[in-house]
Amino acid sequence: MTKKRFLSYLLACSCLWLPAASSPARENAIIAGQDGKSWAIRTRSAVYHLAVSPKGEVNALHFGNPSQPAGQARPPGHELPVRGGTVSAMPVLEAVFPDGVRDIELEYKTHELLEIDGCQTLKIIQRDNYYPLEVTSFIRALPEYDMIEKWVEVAHAGAEGVIRVENLLSGSVFLPKDLYELTHYSGAWGHELVPQTTELTQGVKTLQVRDFKSYGASTFLVRPKGETGATAGKAWFGTVCHSGNWRVDFQKAFSGTVQIAGGINFWDQEIHLQPGRKFTTPRMIFGYTEQGSAGVTTALVAYAREKILPAPLRDRLRPVLYNSWYATTFDVNEAQQLALAKIAAELGVELFVIDDGWFKGRKDGGAGLGDWTVDRGKFPDGLAPMIKKINALGLDFGLWVEPEMVNPDSDLYRAHPDWVLHFPNRGRHHGRRPQLMLNLAREDVARYLYKSLRDLLAENNIKFIKWDANKALSDAGFPSAPAGEQRAVRIRYVENLYRLVETLRAEFPEVWFENCSSGGGRLDLGMMARFDCNWPSDISDPVDRIFIHDSYLALFPAGTMSTWVAEKDWHRRSLSLEYKFDVCMAGILGVGCDISGWNDSQRKLARGKIAHYKRIRETVQKGGVSRLVSPHDENRSVLQYTDADGRKAVVFVYNLAEYPGNTVPGTRRSPLVRLRGLRPDATYRIKEMKGSFTGRRLMEAGIDFPVKGAYRSGVFEITADGE
Ligand code: DGJ
Predict the structure, then answer these.
(1) How much is the pLDDT for 13?
(2) Is the distance from the beta carbon of residue 215 to the nearest atom of ligand 1 less than 6 Å?
(3) Ligand 1: which residue has its CA nearest to atom 5?
């Protein structure tokens, strides 16, 4: 297209450049241009502007501040870049046609404005101009969360031949030319969600998972270099709503434009589309805010809580849990569990969970996985009578399972050695413990797991399932599938995993499901759409947890963060029980200690803390979270949880090592902490402090919370007068 033609086509849709001032209601979030082939998709802070060119290309024009025109002579890229023709943008779609042609040429065909779950959605259909490939882009507007969702459907619209899809992401966006910094969260076992910031220089930066274990997240923030404000400044953000193998690419061109694309990681994957068949990607969200990193957190947390979490238990308060794993590990029996349950009930716990060790042949980590019936050696009468006694103590009962794995030393593996992921003539990589991964892409495996878990839930009064998955994926072979299906194994696996959990949840809607993967190995919105809460890390040391919580709370709702008071002294520091409780009160409080060894004063303290937590948990689990002081910036962490109307808040202060004078070294900064989200004119009282404070004072001048000394903590309940 010549520059002149492009400018006149921009003019045709110029009515779409709208002022930023008003916030679009859901019903007018998508506005079509006069020509009917250009659209402005508006969120509270951004516009995503796209248009069909005279040549029939669907172009992405601008994503960001609504009053900022595209300002470039050419569109930065296509709405759905493909492998074909010139090579510049990262392709969202790469395919091979039956005759071996590997280039795609898409043309706009039609579009539709529809409503999906109450949100306006633009659906654009493009077709290859020769081959029977139909590609549908969906863009769903979520103005109140400052985001859009994108996903893609590809269909083989012909009568013969196979179209091989070698790569299909959920979507991409282009950012205006600028210098940018990317913040993302990576990690390893025990070091989940470590924030990393890096400049996006020319080239491609890829975040990806290939083995189903991330210990990080696909969530990212991209900010113009130098804009680091916590509560103000531009930030583009997003995440892939998919578990297992995902990827996000950031490509910076020499021109300065940055393209972000993400979705399923097609590394070692391929989908063979038969005539008449289609494939739909998971959703990816892309957002833009001018409220800095805090604006990103607010949007992500509200979206996860209101749109992602499973609806049946979404609004219920999470119970206080006791899990006996650290106390008894694999060596479980009825008498000892009942003794623990009795103490747990006295402490105020509401849910008693037996972790690993309860099922047939489970003498240690090397045996039993796959055989999901009770070990009669440990529980001669089965689980049901014990659960009844636990219920009689006023406690609900929960159980650990690891359905996706199998030990070679199990009846299941002896009967079906071909049910695991494997390649013929290649080794089976057992990992640390002799443990293999079932091939959940197989329908017989999915049926077996469904039946085992359904029976377990139907025969026992179980109210909570901790779903673990410890081993990383290896040997991703699916030799029993037709040749053309074998390389879709990871994709089919995740589809079946989702279906399995969804089916169980539909049948047992009152059962809580917790997502655990050797700690936080699978923290993503795909899992969060099916699980009520997450186990973020196997490290329960309060200091490590302060850092992990800081990241987790930047990305996900506090009401999904399981966290236990634990005994083990990971760093030989002997931190106080009080400190441990205060740290765990920032999420879903749990206790994981051997409480049978606790003395009276420990029990008294625990009773008090659990009662305190119950008093504030509505605000903690459902309120908005502000990370007022990050432990990465100072030697302490300060978290504020605030009710929706700003009249009630809880502040947690956790000191790490103390600095002399309680100031931050190298600065003269006072330790005053500025609160957020209160009502400026309201008068607040802080239960643990004297006097009263206006909201304005607390937010503008700040306050010195009286928490002095290394590894000391405080919990402050802040309430507006009249509450
Ligand atoms: C790993 C989990 O992360 C732990 O919490 C515990 O459930 C063990 N597995 C049990 O084997």
Answers:
(1) 46
(2) no
(3) 538
Residue from 326, 531, 535, 537 whose mutation best tests the ligand 1 pocket (most atoms within 8 A of CB): 535
Instruction: Reduce the secondary structure of 19-41 to three states and give it as a string.
Output: CCCCCCCHHHCEEECCCCCEEEE
- Is the C-beta atom of 516 inside 6 A of ligand 1? yes
Burial class (CB in 10 A: 0-12, 13-18, 19+), 202: exposed
How far apart are the C-alpha atoms of 634 and 547, rounded to whole Å? 12
Phi and psi of 538, rounded to 5°? -80, -10
CB of 291 closer than 6 angstroms to any ligand 1 atom: no
Alpha carbons 246 and 267: distance in angstroms, whole number: 9
Encoded tokens for 200? 């996006």
Helix H, strand E, coil C: the string for 555-591 is HCCHHHEEEEECCCCCCCCCCCHHHHHHHHCCCEEEE
d(CA 299, CA 287): 8
Supply angle C-alpha 232, 233, 236, rounded to 5: 125
Buried b or exposed e, range 573-592, using 16+ CB within 10 angstroms: eebebbbbbbbbbbbbbbbb
Q: Which residue has the tokens 């049926």?
A: 447
Are both 3-308 and 638-720 of the same fold? no
Bridge partners (DSSP) listed for residue 626 = 640
pLDDT in tens, 24-51: 777 789 999 999 999 999 999 999 999 9
Query: Phi and psi at residue 694, in whole multiples of 5°?
Result: -80, 155
Q: Can you tell me the mean pLDDT for 358-370?
A: 97
Q: Where are the domains of the chain?
A: 3-308, 638-720
Superfamily of domain 3-308: alpha-galactosidase from lactobacil brevis (2.70.98.60)
**Pair 656, 664: CB distance under 8 Å:** no
Give residue-wise pLDDT tens across range 107-121. Answer: 999 999 999 999 999
- How far is Cα 627 from Cα 557, in angstroms, rounded to an integer? 13
3-state secondary structure of 546: helix
Four-point Cα dihedral 308, 312, 314, 318, nearest 10: -140
Pairing of strands 512-515, 464-467: parallel
Q: Name the class of domain 638-720.
A: mainly beta
Known catalytic residues?
468, 538
Q: Which of 322, 479, 470 is nearest to 403 (CA)?
A: 470
Residue corresponding to tokens 């605000």: 619
The values of phi and psi at residue 294, to 5°, are: -65, -35
For residue 468, pLDDT beyond 50: yes
Q: What would the DSSP string read from start to end of 581-617?
A: HHHHTTSEEEE-S-GGG--HHHHHHHHHHHHHHHHHH
Report the C-alpha gap between 108 and 53 in whole angstroms.
9
**Element spanning 10, H or E:** helix 3-12
Beta carbons within 8 Å of 703's beta carbon, 6+ residues apart: 672, 673, 675, 686, 693, 697
